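for the writeup, i need someone to sanity check this before i put it in the appendix. the sequnce is what the collaborator sent (i think, or maybe the updated version? ugh). structure was predicted straight from it, no edits. if anything looks off just tell me and ill rerun, i have time this weekend
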Amino acid sequence: MLKPGESTRDVLEMVEVIVGDDQEFWAAVKTAAECNEVAMNLRSTRLERGLTQSALAELAGVSKSIIARIEQKGIDSVSVQSLRKIATALGLRLEIGMHPPQSTRQ
């Protein structure tokens, strides 16, 4: 938890001092952030559409537990097929890409 007056940037700078240039660590941080972003986008879009997890699951033809797992833990253990069904049910397009590696820190 952040202390009063600290920002996320302050905490990341402290972590950088402790961890240094451990590329494996920073790659894991980036992956976690990307999974979290998908989870937050799914939840906010679902709520904007006025859907419960159960209603979205039914529309997408997936189990409610898949929706809940994505919103709580991200997409690591969810199939592309399930993600595509969920995106379609929300009127969205699923995009997956592979790109050359970049620096793992921003």
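The domain at 21-89 is CATH 1.10.260.40 (434 Repressor (Amino-terminal Domain)). The helical segments are 8-19, 23-48, 53-60, 64-73, 80-89.
thx in advance!!
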